[in-house]
């Protein structure tokens, strides 16, 4: 391909100048010079590099900086860090060089953005380690996460140039970690786009189907919105309010979730959009004017009382403020009946915070601190979880703990003195106790809600007033981790348990050493410790010692270990084979050797490589020929082949992406697969007989299982068939849907 270097140079300058124009309103002193210096360093560092699309690499840092300014609202420090966020990782430039040319703050942010190099222990994943590093930097500067989200957004926007398996891995990781994080930081627009782009690459057929249908009914939707808002606009104009009003379609991802969770067809989803009223009013009039608009809307349309959400009086912990109501519209135009419509009412300030999140929230911090208190409360919980985290907890566990707090709604409860406490929805009385104080939580034996005694596991409801009961004899136990919901409570419980566990670990080690001496092993070596850990299925040495110290494992079990060890050694000697113990180090070596022998461009051919590679088809999703698949290297069971649409794929791809390999079906060998289909419809006499005759006689397909249930005139069942590939399956499904009474045939995923 012929590259026009002069044309590219002009394009780079054009994008750089656009960045400066966007940032100009808040630039001070020598900010422009500092941005120029960062741009020149980045351009020089990446001058020989190109993206997978073939474009100059410098396009990427420029785009990330543009997103930081235009879509998040960040300033000069973030622009400089965004421009150089890949410089340390990709070139010989060091953090010390950056600190010398700029300042320690920029170097610290770039350090947080730089990926971790090297190998990781079994039980962790590189993505989780990277995420932990970002969260550690979050304790000092939240801009690390905001720039990382801008980086991820641009990567998602340009993902089509990547290899298919890379698209799948990055998109799954985005839905699993980054979209929830954007939600928690209040970046609603970025959250929605990340989810939509993630769905586009993980479920392309479903994404295109919804997108096409949204395009098809766009005109009728716009007509409906126009009719709906007409009477509202008339009244608002009469009252002299300064406002904008428009209909906004819901994201494709949220529509997809409604279809999937509610098993509802697209045509039956009526809340495909929301009407938003944005008021241009001073801060002191925001609340009263929002309620005035609510009054106008409900004067024209009947509201659903159970769907009123007042986040104006009590903002969400991510800073979100808005008044939501759902009202029943009148029939318009071609509509034969009314439909439910969500109406969102907010001020311009609230709208900017809703779209640009925490960055806008800090911009308005001087005028209103309600949102800052809620957000800082969540941020402090993240910091506490990180501080409580140690090497005994994997990065995956830390990410899971924090991820649990990202998407949950809040519950609003009160202390006995009437203080409002905001917790995650699903929080228990024990969570509340730890929110009050760590010692209160540690000594908690129960609680009273509205004067009535409740257990520690009691789930809190909005408006509950809680009194905590304590005892000096109480102490936390591991069972408490199954009761609590919040990151803070989990971190505190783990702290208490960790202190108590130290004595059990010391006791367990002493017991093992003493007994081993009697069994003829004078020293507890690392080799023996690893053998014991593997034999008793312990996570690590401390876990092994702890379980003996707590007498979960009887010390006499060491006799059985010795006998089994000696038997194993005799068998190995007979076979003249020395097999290494599978530990984290040998597993890493095995993985490295595997990747060395099989180049990145190689693909596992399912059906041809069985004699070369140990692989099996995953039972969780039952892939068949024609499905989009990937290989996942397990610890003890070789390679498992999973469908891209497997329920477990987001977790596997996002948490253990370094163990994912390319795989595809070969067309050289004929294979048969068992596939489970869910069949639904209206019951009638002879229906099952018609279906089975069609499959067995006309289509000549073997039925391996059949289970049909009938309720209230409707039937639903499962049928297991032998098929050759996805094309064969599609034709079978289409034929079955032609049987009178059959409404739907779909593939089942476990």
UniProtKB/TrEMBL annotation:
UniProt xrefs under CDD domains: ACT_RelA-SpoT, HDc, NT_Rel-Spo_like, TGS_RSH
Membrane-crossing residue ranges in chain numbering: none
UniProt xrefs under Pfam families: ACT_4, HD_4, RelA_SpoT, TGS
InterPro entries hit by this protein: ACT-like_dom_sf (IPR045865), ACT_dom (IPR002912), Beta-grasp_dom_sf (IPR012675), HD/PDEase_dom (IPR003607), NT_sf (IPR043519), RelA/Spo_fam (IPR004811), RelA_SpoT (IPR007685), TGS (IPR004095)
Residue ranges constituting the TGS domain according to the UniProt record: 409-470
PROSITE patterns noted in UniProt: TGS
Role, per record: In eubacteria ppGpp (guanosine 3'-diphosphate 5'-diphosphate) is a mediator of the stringent response that coordinates a variety of cellular activities in response to changes in nutritional abundance.
UniProt family annotation: Belongs to the relA/spoT family.
Record's protein name: RelA/SpoT family protein
Species the sequence originates in: Aquirufa esocilacus
